[in-house]
Description:
Bound molecules: protoporphyrin IX containing FE
Number of domains: 2
Amino acid sequence: xxxxxxxxxxxxxxxxxxxxxxxxxxxxxxxxxxxxxxxxxxxxxxxxxxxxxxxxxxxxxxxxxxxxxxxxxxxxxxxxxxxxxxxxxxxxxxxxxxxxxxxxxxxxxxxxxxxxxxxxxxxxxxxxxxxxxxxxxxxxxxxxxxxxxxxxxxxxxxxxxxxxxxxxxxxxxxxxxxxxxxxxxxxxxxxxxxxxxxxxxxxxxxxxxxxxxxxxxxxxxxxxxxxxxxxxxxxxxxxxxxxxxxxxxxxxxxxxxxxxxxxxxxxxxxxxxxxxxxxxxxxxxxxxxxxxxxxxxxxxxxxxxxxxxxxxxxxxxxxxxxxxxxxxxxxxxxxxxxxxxxxxxxxxxxxxxxxxxxxxxxxxxxxxxxxxxxxxxxxxxxxxxxxxxxxxxxxxxxxxxxxxxxxxxxxxxxxxxxxxxxxxxxxxxxxxxxxxxxxxxxxxxxxxxxxxxxxxxxxxxxxxxxxxxxxxxxxxxxxxxxxx
Length: 484
Ligand code: HEM
């Protein structure tokens, strides 16, 4: 790691680099109804926003609590705030943050993300929840150890803004709660059952360790106004320094349908039972076993010990496989390969620099566990999924590019290597604009020519979202709050 200028951890909001500690998190989406009143009330709210320094201290306290085998969790409620482009405009902030996706807003960009929807009189409208079709100005999100801690903090915040009372400055558009899944076995696993949150980049000047296989990126890929390896990047307005962009996606997961698909399409290999063949298909669609073990290291058999070892569970690169057209260890279209192709792009002979494609993922699950009836009927009756959230200093280069040019593009990564042919769609998040047949290629490790056709309805269904800017603490005080 090189050593960039030290970061001001008291100025950067806490979720971006350090991740708010959370068992539960509520996103409160709002519209500003009275700008002047808002600025005054916002000044009183700013001290509640959690800094990176506070999150680091909180995480240390959690570590000590755990190492002393103390019971229960430390009560905690950490707060973050972010504004959409419509929100900035509402507040009279018209500086260009140089991100076309942010400026356009996610609703308008949904068609190009491949979200299903309808076009009427030439206007596309995604099949989203109605709340996300309204103009959202901002989001306050609170994460903590328990619903009690989070709700208490949220009530304090709502009272500050007078939400629902005479004298309010904001109105609630919707609130969505996410929760870590229950039980030791499921916690940290997303609803399809796979361990999540294993691979995020390390950030130079913040993370003290980089694990084998983990990329260390310059802070400028996460924070505006900081060093990157791209000198042509326009300088942001000074108040935007130390801020970051947040991509929020409300993603529903059709779990019984996904499980049924795996059951119906086991990979047939000598020595594998049908159930093991289904588990192998799941692992090859994601790129990791449910335990988190990467199939590029352990292609035919899960290895939970490897999965739990941070020195090894990220230490793979798909080295030379693309050059050799070899998908025997991991399909080119596996979710983790589509979203971070490692040596497919970074390795020789291409040696592309893809640090600008890295995102910091901070999602949380929502909705109940699959019920016995859903399991029996192989059909979703209750909404569940992922409140997908990620940070980067550019939505265009980060989330939007990953979704559109990688996950949704069947030619990728072969096209990046100048090869023709199809790798297929990312089976987890890949969408085809306008719908239609999606295939994943190379799913059978012993037969690279096998393609599998995915069901028409995607396993992950987007129902809303927005792009936000997460200002620094200084900017919250000087640009958003009324002067004292
Ligand atoms: C419900 C939707 C999603 C599910 C179930 C899901 C699931 C997973 C799982 C199980 C992993 C492996 C664990 C890890 O490496 O931390 C992963 C990694 C990842 N996902 Fe997703 N994901 C979803 C949506 C997305 C979206 C929308 C994006 C971005 C467009 C994305 C980008 C990534 C990235 C960048 C990685 C890390 C790859 C690596 O560094 O090896 N995911 N996801």
